[in-house]
Fold:
Amino acid sequence: MPAARVVQLIHKGKSLTPSKADFRLAAQRAAILPLCGIVAAIDGFDTQVIGFTGRLIATELHIPQSRLGLVFTAGQLGAVIGAMLFGALADRVGRRRMLIASCFVAALFTGATLRAHDLQELLWCRALTGLALGGALPCLLSLVLHTIAADRRAAMTAMLYAMFPAGAVVGALASAPLIAAHGWRSVFIMAATLPATAGFLLLVSLREMPVRQNAQLAAAETTNRIAALFTGGRATRTIWLWLLFILVHPGIVLLALWMPALLQMLGVSPAQSSLLVASLNFGAVALSFASGWLMQRIGVMRFLLPVLILGAMSWIGISLFHADFPILLMATTAAGCLIGGAMTTIVALCAVIYPEAIRATGIGWALGVSRAGQMTAPLLIGRLLGLGWPPESILLACGAPVLLAVLPLIGLRRAMNTAPADRAIFN
Structure:
């Protein structure tokens, strides 16, 4: 039993013997973390499933391969809306309710993809699946943070967010043998079954936890939680945080989507490209799990500043050493590790910046902004190719946003230094 609870019971003259309600609360809190971790991993797998199967679906439905970009974009657009909408609703109607809803909606429309007959139906299925998957992350992050002590929130946020790319890696490894043995539909059956199962487990295992209203949040602010991101001295923090998301989060998407194609233009074989993408994802998972703990251990600036600078340098390494595969492999792994670690650290900052009453809203809108950047950045690369930029110059230019992210990081530190309680973690 927590010490605070013991003191409270002594003060009230009550028995120190734990009640059934205490046991139920302890069991529920113990179940939240593994269940939400599983949902985050499923989210990563389900988000990437169209990438594993897109070409096969297009062939069966007689959709031109050139139109696959619309299918990918539909999922990302749905995720943008879902992150912002579900995050705001979670703070208002309950994190558990919205997380369960996201699981069942994702299962429904992932399964509906199996029944799509043309491009239009496929676009709707992917957009609505993206809506649910995009809404899951802010809900599960804020649900877990409700039960975690303040000094562990950043580390736990980073660990949970790291489950997203970990799920994508597991999905990539599982999809190839499934497709080879049973066709592309088997992957979608699995991708629909997993969130439905997770939603059922959440439904029977967890009860809704009331949101603790922060004393610093006026009642008027909590009635409009989106506006609350910009009131009470939080406007500058929110703007700097969003700039960090916009500059850093598209990096992994650019590496995963465009790096193989650009390197193949420079003579890298398809087999080598596949190995590079695998090393990229494993690198992204590696530092992500430890980033939140390191951030709280040594401070945001001491950790994130060198990670951003070294991440930009890894882009330079990919551009300069594309002809030397062993060095290219090391540079790609480093880029995944550093940029992935930076991404999870920035997500973890949401747990520090926003009070509980608007935390899901803050996380959801920040993730929505980052997904909007992930949608537009690949289009910009295509535009640069159309303008005749050589691939090595494009790879070099991709490192610039990561380096520029140092500026909003410094701005965020200055904004946080106005709050003495939050100053220590940024030093």
